[in-house]
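Hey, I'm writing a tutorial for new members on how sequence and structure tokens pair up, and I'd like a real worked example in the thread rather than a made-up one. If someone can provide the structure for the chain below, I'll link this post from the tutorial.
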Amino acid sequence: MSAWSRLSRRMWHQIEPLHAVLYFAPEAFAEAAALGYDVESRWPSYFAYRTAPLGRAGTHLATAAYHSFSPRTVGEHVPGVWQTASPEQVLRARLVAIDRVCRGLLGDRLDGPELAEAAGLARRAAESVTVAGRPFAAANLDLPWPDEPHLVLWQAATVLREHRGDGHVAALLTAGLDPCESLVSFAAIGAAPPENFAGRGWSGQEWAEAAERLAARGLLDAAGQATERGRALRDQVERLTDELAAQPWQQLGEERAQRLADLCAPLLGAVFGAGLLPMTSTLGITTVKAPD
């Protein structure tokens, strides 16, 4: 792994949790409920919040961008979410939600020079990304930048996170893993229990058939666990993902990237400390304690 790939992986651990609070924070559910979304499940607001930068997307566009979700599950929400609120309303609501989250976590510290510096560095990295083949990153980069530094930081983190996620889809396709196989192979290396992926909407039969296809390729054993070849393939996927996500960090430079990580530490620690993220995620990163 190159130095830039290692930096890419390290910065992902800093950026991903900052973005992900949108899908779990009570303030985000409250804003979604105010728009009229059912928040008994997290999925209506998730699909609305994450898809809104794409505009009034339909089922096929959303399915393509999300990749690992069952088309059936995507279709249950998109384009129906736009009957409740327009993408423009949803985009405003998600910024209000993040503003409330950040103010609750940091209070007066939001006005400090450190956060403003972090926002400037993160925006510089985000604006340097190459968006070819990266729909989520491009759609978020097209949005106007907010004025407040903490909102700039969150939006930049979102662009960078989605840039990496779009690249991850490319890495999965390069490895010959279809959407369901991508999840089955990830669970098979112990990254997360299979039940954690239930929200992606694949049936038990679809999951079993994907496992059979992977076993036929020598990637899973009889117990459904990854073979040596299976682990090697997943390692290849993650390495390629890191490489494809390295470009903005190369542009920012290692020293400034480390400075950004240091400046984000109080907010990141507050996110972990508040328990806003699930104890077991499907991301393959630690979400239960503050970083060292």
